[in-house]
Amino acid sequence: MASKNCIGLDIGSSAIKVVHIKETSKGMDLINFGIEPLPPQTIVDGTIMNQSAVAEAIRAVAKRMKIRHKEVAIAIAGHSVIIKKITVPVMTQQELEEQIGWEAGHHIPFDRDDVELDHQILVPRTAQGQMEVLLVAAKKEVVHDYAAVAREAGFRPVVVDVAAFSVQNSFEANYTVAETESSALINVGATISTINIVSHGLSLFTRDVTIGGNAFTEEIQKQLSVSYEEAEAYKLGGSTEAAEVVPQELERVLAQVADTLAGEFQRSLDFYLATSAEGNIHRIYLAGGSAAVPALRRAIEGKSRLPCEALDPFKRMTIDQKRFDMDFLQANAPMAAVAVGLSLRHPGDSA
How far is CA 168 from the centre of its chain? Predict the structure, then answer.
């Protein structure tokens, strides 16, 4: 009998997202979904600054959702993770296992003893008689901190993934794309956004961009003289009717920041297109809280000249409409992409 799905626990820098699904022979059933905001500065650039605040938020959302299942999958992102495509001589899987630490030394700016390593063979033999391998290194200290905070909240972390690949899991479970097509998955976090270009199940290119949804909030605060909470609400389409904020002013600020973010993303896409032999992208999917900002989708479509849509990680799930608030699910779907990808993992999965 297949093992149960893990609880997907996404410890983001602006909120905790928790997803519980059940995979059956008929597909995926959504059992539970919850979000708990974190106080600003609790997690900065992927580093946990206030462990007890994070553990408290996890406990609060788990209690509200009545979660009894203890095994969780967690994800890390940001500067503590390095993802690189490397080329090595053709060798067996066992030889690669033995060599990968040595190879990593050439490609990773961290001390070998300070990182957890993982790898995946992308191309077993290229035309040049080499092997293409995806190398992933994560700082042990950060992995330890994220696992410790999950344990402090009463859970047992059994899988540690990389956020970019969790979004890819969500995408592949919910969308069917022609084998010849490449998709750009952009996960817009609060402070760091990750671009992952995928084609038939393989990650062809990943890059972190140090800008995210907080740029909208900060600019709204600054230019429209409102509080952080008000700025967050306005960013995500909160009403400006009973407030001092003029809708046209808000639109102007949103468009201005969206243009900056889209420009940063486009630089990475241009780099991929210029340096990759496969060099094409057919569609862009946006995950993360700011995927809900229409100005961002418009700006990305304008710069990339490609269709761009919010990624819906619940698209193919069976959802009991009596149990779930469908408006809440729809509004927060892009923010759940990492947690859904994590909830597709099982205890005992290799990383």
Answer: 8
Q: Are 215 and 261 in contact (CB under 8 A)?
A: yes
Residue type, 94: Q
Residue 221 to residue 231: CA distance in whole angstroms:
6
Q: Name the residue with higher pLDDT: 157 or 80.
A: 157
Listed residue (82, 85, 73) closest to 116, CA to CA: 82
Q: What whole-number percentage of the chain has pLDDT above 90?
A: 76
- CA–CA separation, 308 vs 291, rounded Å? 10
Q: How far apart are CA 300 and CA 308, in angstroms?
A: 7
* Tokens coding 80: 């503590």
Q: Considering only CA atoms, which of 307, 311, 315, 309 is closest in space to residue 281?
A: 307
CA distance from start to end of the chain = 21
Q: Find the helix or strand (DSSP H, E) in which 107 lies.
A: helix 93-107
Q: How far apart are CA 83 and CA 86, in angstroms?
A: 10
Q: How many helices (H) and strands (E) does the chain have?
A: 10, 16
Amino acid in position 25: S
Please state which of the ranges 74-83, 218-227, 232-241, 304-313 shows the lowest mean pLDDT.
232-241
C-alpha–C-alpha distance, residues 115 and 176, integer Å = 35
CA 225 centroid distance within chain: 31
Q: Are 29 and 317 in contact (CB under 8 A)?
A: yes
Distance, CA of 208 to CA of 194 (rounded, Å): 4
| pLDDT band (50, 70, 90) for residue 238 | low
Q: How confident is the model at residue 310 (pLDDT cuts 50, 70, 90)?
A: very high
Average pLDDT rounded to a whole number, residues 68-76 = 95
349 has a pLDDT exceeding 80: no
